[in-house]
Known about the structure:
Layout: H1 8-24, H2 29-35, H3 39-55, H4 64-69, H5 77-94, H6 97-119, H7 136-143
Amino acid sequence: MPALNIDEPGLARLVDTFYARVRADAELGPIFNDAIHDWPEHLEKLSAFWSSVMLTSGRYKGQPVPAHVKHRGRITPALFARWLALWAETTDELMAPDAAAALQAKAARIAESLKLAMFFRLDGQPTPKPSPRPTRATAAATDHA
């Protein structure tokens, strides 16, 4: 199979292949599969993201930090390493070596930015994990107390 290029079709195929692997991964799969309810729509959004990042297309209009922060209770800094390892494996397999290296470098910078936004404050201290929201049963029990 010829190596994919960093173009719209190549990025779409990379994203589809990579996230099929993420969905099947023992560590990442449960988190992603619980969070994503419409995979075709999400894959299009991710293709637009990588198009914007690598091709400066401007197709992506989302906000990745808030999208990830809302799942902070299930995401750990170590999971970023797993994501990056799977990304490296997939890009090395599908892309030409220079394209794979560029995608891996960009992903590493993005992952570092997300980790900083999710887990660390400007003063270098860890950001506390959010408190779990009370369930309706908990709220009802405390109302009657």
